[in-house]
Specification:
The protein has 455 residues and is an alpha+beta fold. It folds into two domains: 3-48, no CATH class; 60-407, PurM-like C-terminal domain (Phosphoribosyl-aminoimidazole Synthetase, Chain A, domain 2). The protein contains 14 helices and 13 strands. The strands form two sheets. It has a seven-stranded mixed beta sheet with strand order 8-11-7-12-9-13-10, sandwiched between helices. Strands 1-2-3-6-4-5 form a six-stranded mixed beta sheet, with helices on one face.
Length: 455
């Protein structure tokens, strides 16, 4: 330690000891355990020695991956119900509309309006650069979904600077900035906070004709529904966190998540789209439910026409599902759903959170095949017609049919690896001594009896 740093430590620790608390963390005494055991004073700007064994995997540093880390829609609606309504004539689309982004007219003389959106979430992949790319692609997608052109962005990042090397954060930002460059969007600045978990995203400014932006309403009878990316990001990412997804599975979703919806948006605009949204954390059914309610229409979807990532059906059948599936299910009223024809695994897929998912567009039937061919000609090979608008319905209704319910029957999942199993068991059972409610998900193999709740 050089003389300057030593003097800095002395000054700061003298003040902390006099106060009886660390000045950088008032919950700790001074001198703290870090100083006693590691000879490190973080209040003086000194860093703890990094204890990293092997490659850094970003998903090891978060609880919920990707858009599954967002607050559930049901809770969010409850929270926002207590927020004052927007009262400004310049606002064309506000938060009360539940649309993909806000739209504001800054001047009455403008022929264009401005689209404002922000999106931040935890990593859904392990590679820092790729995570940055995905964060950018996901953030800019809301502008594309509304038929706008993104113009500029600000980065937002939370990072555990005491746990991970600085170059990890550098790579995240680099990936995001270069993906934004691909979209033609300069990142003009940003904001960072020291956080216990990694988070990254962007606030994006876009423009659109003041009377020509696309809403998550306006779907018409006869419209054909086209989905441009496969479903299953949330399921696959969660499977990867617990060791049930292959490297190929994870590479497949990473490639899709980091792909911009720019080309899809251009095709959408060229084919008289009536309504659109992008499919992200609230799932296909969560986002679609807003369109059918706002448009007052009934839609019918054929499950087999929905594009899925390669191993998603198998994972869903084994009930390898993130917790966001339940949260998303709770956020959509059963009164607007007709899913009786489906197996549980099929329903779970439709409620699975997506990250940087595709566009769901409602195209007039006369243009549908043309739009689909244009998407495929641009390399969007997974684009598929998944259903259509069949009739008016004041409350909105989503019907999903299937040709093979039995193909999605549940199968027993193999047990977790022993080290994972013991960690989960210890966490669940720590406060449940001698309880039958304990450890059903990971019974102790040494036990001679099975808890009654598991039988």
């Amino acid at each position: 330690m050089d003389k300057h740093q030593l003097e800095k430590r002395k000054v700061i620790m003298k003040r902390s000891i006099a106060l009886g608390h660390c000045v950088c963390d008032p919950k700790k005494p001074c001198p703290c355990l870090d100083f006693k055991e590691k000879d490190v004073c973080q209040c003086a700007g000194e860093k703890m020695p990094l204890e990293i064994d092997g490659d850094i995997k970003l998903t090891d540093y978060v609880k919920s991956a990707g858009c599954a880390s967002k607050i559930g829609k049901k809770d969010l609606v409850d929270i926002l119900s207590g927020v004052p309504a927007i009262e400004d004539d310049r606002v064309l689309v506000g938060s009360n509309a539940g649309d993909d982004a806000g739209v504001i007219l800054l001047s009455e003389d403008d022929t264009h309006a401005h689209i404002l959106t922000v999106d931040v979430f935890a990593p859904s992949v392990d590679d820092p650069y790729t995570f940055g790319e995905i964060a950018a692609a996901n953030s800019v997608s809301d502008v594309y979904a509304m038929g706008g052109k993104p113009q500029a962005a600000l980065s937002i990042i939370g990072f555990p600077v005491d746990l991970l090397p600085n170059d990890v954060m550098t790579e995240i930002l680099k990936g995001g900035i270069e993906k934004m460059k691909e979209a033609g969007v300069p990142v003009v600045g940003g904001h960072s906070i020291k956080d216990g978990e990694i988070k990254c995203g962007f606030a994006v400014l876009g423009t659109c004709p003041k009377d020509g932006f696309v809403r998550n309403s306006g779907a018409q009878i006869g419209d054909v529904m086209i989905l441009t990316k496969p479903l299953g990001v949330g399921i696959t990412a969660f499977a990867g966190q617990i060791g049930h997804a292959s490297a190929d599975d994870l590479a497949e979703i990473a490639k899709s998540m980091s792909t911009l919806n720019k080309d899809a948006a251009e095709v959408m605009q060229n084919n008289n789209v009536n309504a659109a949204t992008d499919i992200t954390g609230y799932s296909l059914l969560g986002h679609l439910s807003e369109i059918v309610k706002n448009s007052k229409v009934e839609v019918e979807i054929i499950f087999e026409e929905i594009p899925l990532f390669n191993n998603v059906a198998n994972l869903a059948r084994r009930e390898i599902l993130p917790g966001a599936v339940e949260r998303n299910r709770e956020s959509v009223s059963v009164d607007i759903l007709n899913l009786n024809a489906l197996a549980d695994a099929q329903t779970d897929i439709l409620f699975s959170p997506e990250t940087s998912g595709g566009l769901l567009m409602f195209i007039p039937e006369i243009n549908a095949e043309k739009a689909l061919k244009e998407l495929q000609d641009r390399g969007i090979s997974s684009a598929s017609i998944i259903g259509k608008v069949t009739s008016q319905n004041e409350s909105g209704l989503i019907t999903v049919t299937t040709e093979c319910k039995e193909c999605y029957s549940h199968v027993k999942v193999e047990k977790l690896k022993v080290e994972k199993q013991s960690e989960v068991q210890a966490k669940i059972c720590s406060d449940e001594e001698e309880s039958d409610d304990c450890c059903c998900c990971c019974p102790d193999e040494s036990s001679e009896s099975t808890p009654s709740c598991c039988s």
